[in-house]
Amino acid sequence: MAASPTFDIQEITRRMQGAIGSFKHELGTLRTGRASPNLLDPIIVEAYGQTMHVNQVATVSVPEPRLLSVQVWDRGMVQAVEKAIRDSSLGLNPQTEGQVIRLRIPELTQDRRKDMVKVAHKYAEGARVAVRHVRRDGLDILKTKEKDHTMSEDDHARNADQVQKETDKHIAEIDQLLVHKEKEIMTV
């Protein structure tokens, strides 16, 4: 008979934190009114016969609040990076000067802001679902251990309560991050 899986609240917490880290990264790619180097993270460039993220072929910086500067390392890659930015759904118009691509961040319209808030809500729901999956995995381990008689009912209840507290804490953190991002997006 296979050994039952071990229950580790730190592992469950770590996995929930991973879901939040992923959510924070997704929020960072949403354009507010200000320039952010994370804005270009989702852009993929055809480079050297394979696909790479922009930050693997260039340095992205923010010289001004409404301007991104992309310093492409290899002169031969400038046009590929420019094309990838132009073809992305970000609606940015690259202006190239040698190996530097400048991107002016246009003002967001009210409709575009509302669309971005909807996307942020979708990302938040995805993060909540990921946290709930981790909770379910933890509770399944506890049920298995109780069924195998390697854990008492009291220990099962105590640990299940601990898992639920971690879940509630992480979902509250997701909600807090969403409120902050929504406010940031809607600020004109």
Automatic annotation (TrEMBL):
Q: Which GO terms describe its cellular component?
A: cytosol
Lineage of the organism: Bacteria, Pseudomonadati, Pseudomonadota, Alphaproteobacteria, Hyphomicrobiales
Major localization listed first in the record, in broad terms: cytoplasm
**Gene encoding this chain?**
frr
Localisation per UniProt entry: Cytoplasm
Hey, which family's this protein in? Belongs to the RRF family.
Biological processes, Gene Ontology terms: cytoplasmic translational termination
What residue stretches are annotated with the Ribosome recycling factor domain? 23-186
The GO terms describing molecular function are: ribosomal large subunit binding
Q: What is this protein called?
A: Ribosome-recycling factor
HAMAP family referenced in this protein's UniProt entry, alphabetically: RRF
Say what the protein does.
Responsible for the release of ribosomes from messenger RNA at the termination of protein biosynthesis. May increase the efficiency of translation by recycling ribosomes from one round of translation to another.
Which keywords fit this entry according to its UniProt record?
Cytoplasm, Protein biosynthesis
Q: Supply the InterPro entries for this chain.
A: Ribosome_recyc_fac, Ribosome_recyc_fac_dom, RRF_sf
